[in-house]
Amino acid sequence: MNQKTAILIFANSAEKEVERKSFLSTEVFAALNSHTLKTVEKSGIDYFHISEKQQIGTSFGERFSNAINAIFNKGFNNVITIGNDTPHLKTHHLVDTLHQLETKDVVLGPSKDGGFYLMGIKKAQFNKETFIELPWQTNRLHKSIATIAATKNLEVQFLELLNDIDSKEDIRFILNSFKAIPEFILKLLQKLFFTFKSTFFLENFSTLKTSFSKNYNKGSPLIFA
Is residue 128 classed exposed, middle or buried when 0-12, 13-18 and 19+ CB atoms within 10 A define those classes? Predict the structure, then answer.
C-alpha cells in the first residue's frame, strides 16, 4: 500500500446515476458500482468513495474539485480519480498510475468521447480554481487538460484509450470490442442492447407500414443500427 496515494471514486448511487443516464437501469449501475469497487480493492491502494451524499458544489466542476481537494486535505500527495462507467477498467490501470506518479506530474486515461476515465494528479500540480473552469462533460476536456499541462511544462503519461458509457452507442462499442468485461455486466449490457434494437425495429416497422405505397420502386435497404 502506498501511503502517499489514494483513489477517489467519484460516482453517484445507482438511483442517482439513472436520473442522468435514463437509457441505463439501476441494475446496470449497481453492477458497475460493484465492479468498480472490486477493481479498486484489488489494487491495495487506499480509496474513498464520494457519492452525491458527500459532494459539495453546484456545478460538476465544483463538486469534483472539492472532492479531490478533500482527499489532499487528508494528507495524501497524489490522487487517482475514477468514475463508475468504464467496464474495461482493470486493477492494472490503477497500479500503473500509482507507479507513473512517481515520475510524472499527471496521468490520464483518455476516453473515446474526449474526456477521461482516470486521472492521476499530484497535490503540487492541483489548482482548484483552474480545475473548476475546465470544460467538464464536453468532448474538449481531454484536449484542454493536455494544453494546460503543455503550457506549464508538466509531464503527462497517457494510459490506453477506453470507452465509458455515456450513450447507447457506447454500449455497442463496448460489446463489439475485444476487451474482456465481467460476465454479469456483459449479460446486462447485451440485454439492454437487444432491447434497443427491438425498439428500433418496431418503431421503423410501424413507420414503414404507415408510409407504404404501391409504387414498388427499388431503393436502398433498411439498415438497423
Answer: middle
